[in-house]
From TrEMBL:
Pfam families: Cas12f1-like_TNB, OrfB_IS605. It comes from Anoxybacteroides amylolyticum. Signal peptide: none annotated. Keywords: DNA recombination, DNA-binding, Transposition. This is Transposase, IS605 OrfB family. InterPro entries: Cas12f1-like_TNB, Transposase. It comes from the Bacteria. Residues 166-257 form the Probable transposase IS891/IS1136/IS1341 domain.
Length: 370
């Protein structure tokens, strides 16, 4: 299985090099908007080769771009219009921020003396860089791809795509059942009977605050209110992304290396559940798919594997006697009481226990075939 991640590398340019990078990014922004206008005037041209024929020479002469930079401009613009066509949009794409992409070993590379060589409008420049927290990507087993230059708060970063083929282990040291929800973002139980509970109450309160603020701004219906609406939408998305990163990291660290994490397959879950009207926004904007994707790639980095199983009856089946009935689960008090044997526990914990059992059965089947 191929794993692709983004390594974020902090660049340490001198003052002169800093100015060169800023100049290159400004030229790139102008070139992108120039190529975008040409593509728009040619009926939203989304073919890289056709766009390159139209604008390549102008990109070199008018904006001073190097050959590979000019090609990257055509690739970016053509890709944007291809995406817009698929979404039914027919507007002019405007690049408010420069998007400067580099090709590995063409526009950027790592030198033998531990520096980075990166292209600018004039020439390639060498500078030191920091890899704090990214050291694993430089052990020689990762293959580097396209890099994107990012300028944030006066600092330069290069976001590099790194990929590696990872083979899941045939034998797992631990099996972890993971129940995901809104009251508890994650409830996990491993094969050593250790437990992990990550509450989601504070997430619901933050989302409720955004709901109230959004309602107030929509009622105002002014230009400033619309700008604020757009701003808080980005804030909410970044908040949830950060939460999912933190939750997935904590879960994978709890599981440890060479573990099998068993999750419910919640694909299209919003199409099948009934939710009270007052809870619909919070429920339907819960980023379960993003959380699962974060858990999957972080698990691979720890030589672990994620198994997604059908969610049916995982919170209704007794983990002790196997009796399954919807009345076993008391949703109002978040408690599970078995109608047959009387086993009592937290309902989310019961879901995690049943998922763990499915993982143990899967693991036994895999090892038996081996």
């Amino acid at each position: 299985m191929e794993l692709v991640v983004t390594a974020k590398i902090r660049l340490l340019p001198t003052e002169a090099q800093h100015l060169q990078l800023v100049e290159t990014m400004q030229a790139m922004k102008q070139a992108l908007n120039f190529a975008s206008k040409v593509a728009y005037e040619h009926h939203l041209l989304s073919s890289f080769k056709k766009l390159q024929v139209l604008v390549y020479r102008d990109l070199r002469e008018l904006f001073g771009l190097k050959s590979q930079m000019a090609c990257n401009v055509c690739t970016i613009v053509a890709g944007v219009y291809a995406s817009m066509k698929s979404n039914g949009e027919r507007t002019l794409a405007v690049f408010k921020k420069p998007k400067l992409q580099y090709s590995y070993n063409r526009d950027y590379s790592f030198t033998k003396d531990g520096q980075m060589s990166i292209g600018t409008l004039n020439k390639r420049i060498k500078m030191p860089f920091l890899t704090k927290g990214q050291e694993r990507y430089f052990d020689g087993s990762w293959e580097f791809g396209t890099g994107t230059l990012v300028y944030k708060k006066g600092k330069f970063y290069l976001h590099v795509a790194a990929k590696k083929v990872i083979h899941p282990p045939s034998v797992y040291q631990h099996v972890v059942g993971v129940d995901m929800g809104m009251r508890f973002l994650v409830t996990a139980v491993d094969s050593r009977n250790r437990h992990l509970f990550i509450k989601g109450n504070h997430i619901q309160s933050v989302k409720a605050r955004y709901v109230r603020l959004r309602k107030e701004l929509q009622q105002r219906n002014t230009k400033s209110a619309k700008r604020k609406l757009k701003k808080i939408a980005g804030q909410e998305n970044r908040f949830m992304t950060n939460v999912n990163h933190c939750v997935s990291k904590a879960l994978v660290q709890f599981a440890g290396k060479h573990s099998l994490l068993v999750l419910e397959d919640l694909t299209d879950i919003n199409d099948t559940v009934c939710v009270r009207k007052k809870d619909r926004y919070v429920r339907f904007t819960w980023a379960f798919a993003q959380l699962r994707s974060f858990i999957e790639y972080k698990a691979r980095l720890h030589d672990s594997h994620v198994l997604a199983v059908p969610p049916a009856y995982t919170s209704q089946q007794c983990p002790t006697c196997g009796f399954t009935h919807k009345n076993n689960r008391k949703k109002q008090i978040h408690t599970f009481i078995c109608g047959a044997c009387g086993y009592t526990s937290n309902d989310d914990r019961v879901g995690a226990l049943n998922l763990r059992q499915k993982g143990i059965e899967y693991h036994h089947g895999v090892t038996a075939q081996a």
